[in-house]
Known about the structure:
The complex is a heterodimer. Chain A has one domain (2-61). Chain A has 3 helices and 2 strands, in the order H-E-H-H-E. By secondary structure, chain A is α+β, with helices and mostly antiparallel strands. Chain A is 31% helix and 34% strand. Chain A has helices at residues 2-7, 22-25, 33-42; strands at 9-20, 52-61. A two-stranded antiparallel sheet of chain A has the order 1-2. Chain B is α/β, with parallel strands linked by helices. Chain B has a single domain (19-200), classed as Vaccinia Virus protein VP39 (Rossmann fold, 3-Layer(aba) Sandwich), CATH 3.40.50.150. In chain B, strands 3-2-1-4-5 form a 5-stranded parallel beta sheet. The longest helix of chain B is centred in the first third of the chain and has 13 residues, at 19-31. Chain B is globular and about 50 Å long. Classes of the chains: A alpha+beta, B alpha/beta. Chain A binds chain B through residues 3-4, 6-9, 15-16, 20, 25, 27-32, 34-35, 38-39, 41-43, 51-65, and chain B through 25-26, 29-30, 32-33, 37, 39-40, 62, 64-67, 70, 146, 152, 156, 160-161, 164-165, 168, 171-185, 188-189, 191-192, 195, 197-198, 200-201. Strand 2 (52-61) of chain A pairs antiparallel with strand 5 of chain B.
Amino acid sequence: MSKIKKIGFTAVTRCGERPVGIDDCAQYPVFTQELLDLMRRHLPRERWPRVARAVIFLAERAGRA
Amino acid sequence: MSQMGTHPHAPLGDDLIGQGAIKDLVREAYRRVVGKTSTIAERLYEPYQLVGLPAGAIAQALGVGNPVLAARLKPGDVVLDMGCGGGIDTLLAAREVGPTGRAIGLDTLPEMLAAAARHAAEIGLGDIEWMLGDLEDIPLPDASVDVALSNGVVNLSPRKSRVFAEVHRVLRPGGRLVAADIIVDEDLPPEIFTNPAAWAG
């Protein structure tokens, strides 16, 4: 969010948020089996359902349309 | 399909260590996507949005949210879908902006653009423009877009600030960026963060 504001966007807001677990990550091609295994090995089991958050953010280029 | 030609913006600067490797990793990973499941789309999109979409577009959905729904597009809007992949968000956007609007799908992989164009043709959305190009160097003029959509794509770029600067450049004053992405709150152990796929993911 701070990067976006620094670029000059205004009215930066976040809407919608859901937890992302290791099983969710497994559905995406950039998460290799090796990485998924590493996550399971190094993170406590209670954290597996929430290793990140998926968010939607909105930002506006300043000025009138 | 439109091809990225020479355009007036400065070329990218020297690559920083690892950026090329991360981009290669992402491209290779997404090149292997063949679209075997509709699980992601069914989780992220409203049922009415999926009605009438080609099965291939649904199966190739690899986003992390539903930015089209959040964008509240209007007929006539010019919409850029950054990293359009199999095209699901571009198709949804094209339906909302209608014939008076313009929907543009941008992706770095020709294979994905070809698939997206096929999906659009299947449902008669032949007016969508498909562009080959990099998010860090968007092949569009300044101030030419009303709404830029991104769905799980900015996090794949090793130069996120550059991506945001490019989006800012192509948006019209008052134009909006609507982006779904993944945020990691807590520090992950170094064993995970040093894996190249973790940088890309």
